[in-house]
């Protein structure tokens, strides 16, 4: 419990789709100190619905929202292609921004955001890698930090969705889904991906599931299975294997039942349900930081790195070969952040 | 997501001990729409500490706080002996009140609160049986409602604390700890306790653990083990056994580790940690209801019943015999609430 | 691994029903050093089937089988009412006998077996409380012996069958099913039941489930739920609660599956499957002891005590009151056995 | 339960090290119908110890044992380098042989065994891939066969030992440990490995852990982690991921304990304990088949394939590149076996 911050943070939310709507629901029901004053979406009807529920107004354009005197900070939950541009506009307006992943569609565009932030000279951007706020991942990182596992050698990751949109593509699975693991493994190990290989057992049609191997600068290897049509539900697993032991995300169902010869627990249906706590903590931490004039969590630099590794992954899936990942030099603005 | 309620609820908190402090922490970090404007505690120093963190003022007395124009609703987390009197004062002041369990020290005093509320003609009192807001218990009740378990025959409950205060007594274990199960079982089954037997394997010294058997009006039986010096941690379990299957609270640790020949998960250290979500949902639901001019959750009547059954339990522990529980007639004010 | 015993033990099996058939299957497939030479059953057809599979002969009567020169030791898996008489005949014939529980229909009859064995002067009788050979229960007893749990205060037991015969009765549930817990708790704690109370939520029709409370001479209390029409499968649980921690039988499914929104494991369908290892170890230990001229495991005295406590339980269920259990003085023949 | 086979199978056991000793213990305590008549080991003292316990004789040489009139069938648990030669001698002697894995040190040598068996015209050789008899793996294969998982896309395998001999080498981890997964995955999927890649996060010193990716002829991919110095205990996991769901080996601890803030279950210390049931079922099935004049389980051909894939794995670990696996044409003798 820190000292009280009295001013309420006035938020503008760009994007009133599933993610934006859920963020507004979380803010209005579980995040004190923030109020949604403006909402924009290309679809005015749903912008209006969300704005009404939140007690805010509809902004005619994203630009207007970002520039508004009624908006202290911005949540970007619009289509991926717009992210980099909107975040740049927020930097221009000198307003803190929480941008849903990915930060940009290409690593190059993400680097432009980094450069703009560096030019501005102070961090304003948080990228929506909400897993860093999930109680399980947080506890995993604490367990690693406590040293009980020795040196980390391997991290195993599984990431499954019940079903994907029919528009899903092989590269899209990497940039849209696997990107979470690309960030999470680096964050957990305080390390960087320097090589990646992605392959799929499915050669015809959508390459799903995909298996990736990540090589970390520090030597550890990580495996990643992403399966966006796993049918049975939403499922995320992470096991860290060290020289003295292992630690893994635990299951957290609410109840277990015994009926008809089966002892069973529910599997979450989707990520909004599975990561509800993570989204709540993410929004609360960002709000807290913004009210105090600062910023928290995954940086634009993390967003750039995730884009960069994802691009290498896409190249690997296409070529069938391992791809090296060579990042630009890290600006000092991002020193010591994790 | 309901329609927005614009006015912020101004809360007065009576009691700045562990529970009151935690409630204030929860309100300020996770409950939008409420602000703590006044705090009172017999210990002015800790009242001041909590008030400062919350951005509120210290009230010189509980009466002053309840009567203050700066207070819309009251949280009572003061010593048990003061509960009934404070809640009566809140009813007098026509302000919604969330009172930590127990509602009163005796069933007779609890009944006085009920009568005052009935005389006032509208419900203002919520008793702090927070388990009704715990995601596990909620899901358990939903599972029962879905009918998959058939008719309920038995409910098994386990309730363990790592250690008790040295001042713990046999009756105190019933009125302070087992009282949660006395309410929860009735709520889960939408039924009422009509008989209770309490015994302990320990005949000399503190009778701990205690085993209780509850007879429900509808015929089901419930077992309760309460063990307030279980040493290993805080632990709550509930299994409902029906004619077609069973359902139980599931474990929800964050991570599991494998080290030194053991695969293990953490056991929560105390109820504040174990029921953090329950407290948050309780406070959020109460705030939501109060902002809308209403009240939610466990009623003064539920508080009275829990007191009544606990008294019978105390008598049973002392006498070694089963005690019948005969409640007063239920006022119509409480019809259809659950 | 002990020194080799060369002679093969020639077994006579009385009773070719489900239990007897399964014992013969276990002996022929998993117990070296024993061979089934004679089988008797009132139903000659099934006696013949079992004998053929085992490579043995059909005996015209139980008496003939017990007296046969081709039979070194006897397995009694005939109807309960015949147990005591058959075991007495085995003692007369000076042959080791493994008798399915219960040892007798009444405690008085069981005591007669005890007296006959005492008169003979050497133990020949093992009662089929196979749970004492179950790897889980064995590990539980070892855990208790290691002292990690402190002093035992409570034991919780659950014992469920998918469904009972239509001929099931309230007393039969105690003498046929609960009798396992009556023995197991005493064995685990190396203690004796001195009081019992049995009740059921079902007042009309078959009193099922039943809840029992056992008072041990050493002060500990045990709860037992027996539910012979639990529908969902066969289920046995045991948790020992000590002053420093608890230990419980763990689940041991073969696989877990995730399909259609559920992560599930199979529940065993019946006790033959659930306790397959226990039956195997029981038969192996008994065979090993008999080949070495001795006897192993639960004694006639244990069988008598189980009968005695069950009778008190039946009286409690009928009367609704707690019943004291007063055993005869233990003959020195049974000193130090556990 | 099949019809009785009266003749006892007389076994010769070559190798009285840890594995041979454990096999003899299993045979004498849990496998009816077999007796160990001869034991040979280069170390006469330990040969004598094992022979005495089993009630058998010591054979002066492996050749003498294989040729003895007192030996109907042979168990080979001698050093790896002797396996192929001993199995060839058994084929010469027309005696069934259960040979510990690997069948040979090189795929070429294994192929020689295959050719000898083919020349003989009837199968005599079973290779000791005991996992095929493990209840968990068996249930996993049944679950796959039932079709509930849809088409298999991925299999994840983890295989950990607490510690390795100081003589362990990178290639040895593949041929000695990973070889189990090389056989198991093929058996589970009724498929064949056509490509393999092995890498390790450890570049200096023993390459441990190792990660392998297996490409199956049918398109599925398998991941394998082998970690022979995992410290915390022995651990085996297998999850099969299909288009309709997944199935995995479940944990089967005996008890769970709650002490000092941790709910824990024991991890097995080594494979002899973990796979005790698998070894028992393996020996029982082999004995049953041999008594009936036949053979069961994994064939010499399976042994050859495992050798072949392991060799490719060794080459991959050395070269850092994916290796194709091209098997000789399968002799018709092995048609339809699985």
UniProtKB/TrEMBL annotation, chains A, B, C, D:
Catalytic activity: myo-inositol + NAD(+) = scyllo-inosose + NADH + H(+)
Example GO biological process: inositol catabolic process
A GO molecular-function descriptor: inositol 2-dehydrogenase (NAD+) activity
Residues of the Gfo/Idh/MocA-like oxidoreductase N-terminal domain: 10-129
Keywords assigned by UniProt, alphabetized: NAD, Oxidoreductase
Entry annotated with the keyword Endoplasmic reticulum: no
Domain named GFO/IDH/MocA-like oxidoreductase: residues: 137-247
Superkingdom: Bacteria
Documented EC number(s): 1.1.1.18
Subunit structure: Homotetramer.
Function summary: Involved in the oxidation of myo-inositol (MI) to 2-keto-myo-inositol (2KMI or 2-inosose).
Family: Belongs to the Gfo/Idh/MocA family.
Protein name: Inositol 2-dehydrogenase
Organism: Mumia zhuanghuii
Gene that encodes the chain: iolG
